[in-house]
Write a structure and sequence with these properties.
By secondary structure, the protein is of the alpha+beta class. The protein contains 17 helices and 17 strands. It is found in: Cytoplasm; Mitochondrion; Nucleus.
Length: about 525
């Protein structure tokens, strides 16, 4: 059973006098009962008025008939000296007497709370909840639960600090203390009220671990005006940031409040906080599903297809890519906002990828559809394969983020298999290339190739050719099958890259060699 006791009475009366709403009063009285905050606003106001009229003995209590865990209580501690009442130039403003009950009751019907700026008033009502739910339904997301987040105007922290200093002084006069951390956080109280209403309207449970987020961003037109003094007092806390319309972000304001001295705060901001001129506005109501990850393997059969879009100086060189041929179908089916493509290594535009294919993964950002059966994934795989003769995908499946990390692990230690068609300037016989078959674990020193130097740092990389097997074709051509350490530049191993790769096929054969075709197997 949640209670307000006689020692809460001065706080209730003080806050009502200064224009604070019933739910914020409960927060400052450290009431931890979730159910109590959900009571209708008018009922809470009526109960607080009745509580103030109760003149029975000090320990007698007014009970709100609800069942909940024990509430947080104000700690009884050694008496602290309260703040001296001084004028606005120094600290606290003159406030109505806590004994003037008539004043408290007359002022209790506040239009906009001077602490929460209406968050725990207007935006707890059914009409606003329905507005949020309409936004969710119109966005057409798949979800089985939701997590609710809220962004508050930065000056709310300033107003709460001012109200706390006022209450702390009154508590000190009564031989009590109130730590700022004991006050129920506004976000917490708001979620206590909103969660059950959203859950009922959306017909799914609220779950802190849900992948589907419903968020509301509140703003207030007087934010800059009310926070401006902090920028003067703590200029180091406020730095212009990209994509931020104002320097007064929530984190910057909190940082400044932690830094500013109490007496300096009281010189520049009214305590108690004044009644606001305007109500908060719900600037944005947003929905977002956590990313979904799809993985598989792809084969590339074209020698004129890059892995990712080939764009140089803003000009597109080829009309498509492996990434686009796969992702366009996934984007359409998952109804995602965007995607991120990754793979285990990459091949050049003129290199085919054969064999079991190259592992790839696509992160689908903010997808509307997230549930797919194994049969549906097979159907999606078939759709991709039917759309082009340049690529094929296999083993298409939904995976976790951690599986993507494992795909990238140990890339340097992997072994890759290649088939290269090689040309030589001088005529060769079968026995001229047969000795390559006997070379094992050949160590190479490869400087960053000239063709990738514009996007890779200059370095010398040690790579290993594990085995080679030659296949003689004619006097100027042979095919070489190689097993190498991942990350080996095969083209450069063949032609030498002007001596940047040593040894190379040209130096081993003592003639000029070049590569005509390369396949990853």
């Amino acid at each position: 059973m949640s209670l307000l006791t006689e020692k809460d009475k001065p706080i209730v009366q003080l806050l009502l006098n200064t224009g604070t709403c019933p739910r914020c009063i409960l927060r400052f009285c450290c009431v931890g009962s979730q159910t109590l905050y959900r009571h209708p606003y008018k009922d809470l106001m009526k109960d607080l008025k009745e509580f103030l009229k109760n003149n029975q003995e000090k320990e007698e209590t007014v009970c709100f008939d609800i069942v909940d865990p024990p509430c947080k209580r104000i700690r009884l501690e050694d008496t602290e000296e309260g703040l001296d009442d001084v004028n606005h130039n120094g600290a606290l403003q003159q406030i109505p007497s806590v004994n003037d009950e008539n004043t408290a009751i007359e002022n209790s019907a506040v239009k906009v709370c001077n602490v929460c700026l209406g968050i725990l008033q207007e935006f707890c009502e059914v009409d606003f909840v329905k507005k949020v739910c309409q936004k969710v339904h119109s966005a057409d997301y798949q979800f089985t639960s939701f997590v609710f987040s809220v962004s508050l105007p930065p000056q709310m922290s300033v107003r709460e600090r001012a109200a706390w200093l006022m209450v702390k002084q009154e508590m000190g006069n009564l031989g009590l203390s109130l730590a700022k951390d004991d006050i129920v956080q506004l976000k917490e109280a708001y979620k206590w009220i909103i969660h059950p209403q959203l859950s009922e309207e959306l017909d799914v449970p609220a779950d802190g671990k849900s992948l589907f987020e419903v968020s509301v961003v509140f703003a207030h037109p007087e934010t800059d005006e009310e926070c401006h003094f902090l920028a003067t007092a703590c200029p180091d806390c406020f730095k212009p940031a990209k994509n931020k319309q104002s320097i007064f972000t929530r984190m910057a304001v909190i940082k400044a409040l932690e830094k500013i001295k109490e007496e300096d705060f009281l010189k520049h901001f009214p305590c108690p906080p004044s009644s606001p001129k305007n109500l908060c506005v719900a600037l944005e109501i947003q929905c977002n599903n956590s990313a979904v990850f799809v993985a598989g393997r792809y084969n590339k059969y074209s020698r004129n297809l890059p892995q990712t879009p080939w764009i140089i100086d803003g000009e597109r060189k080829l009309e498509s890519s492996v990434e686009e041929l796969i992702s366009e179908h996934l984007m359409a089916e998952f109804k995602a906002d965007s995607f991120n493509f990754s793979s285990s290594g990459r091949e050049d535009v003129d290199v085919r990828t054969l064999g079991n294919g190259r592992p790839f993964a696509i992160e689908l950002v903010n997808p509307r559809r997230i549930h797919f059966t194994a049969e549906e994934m097979k159907g999606l795989q078939q759709t991709i394969n039917n759309s082009s003769d340049k690529i094929q995908v296999r083993d298409l499946q939904l995976v976790t983020r951690s599986a993507i990390g494992r795909m990238k692990e140990g890339e340097e230690e992997k072994t890759k298999t290649y088939s290269a068609l090689i040309w030589t300037d001088k005529a060769i016989q079968k026995e001229d290339v047969a000795f390559l078959d006997d070379i094992k674990e050949l160590k190479l020193d490869q400087k960053t190739p000239l063709r990738v130097l514009h996007r890779r740092p200059l370095a010398v990389r040690c790579r290993i050719i594990h085995t080679m097997k030659s296949e003689y074709i004619d006097e100027h051509h042979f095919r070489l099958h190689l097993k190498t350490q991942a990350g080996t530049y095969i083209k450069e191993f063949v032609h030498g890259d002007f001596g940047r790769t040593k040894p190379n096929i040209g130096s081993l054969l003592n003639r000029t060699a070049d590569i005509l075709e390369l396949d990853v197997e």
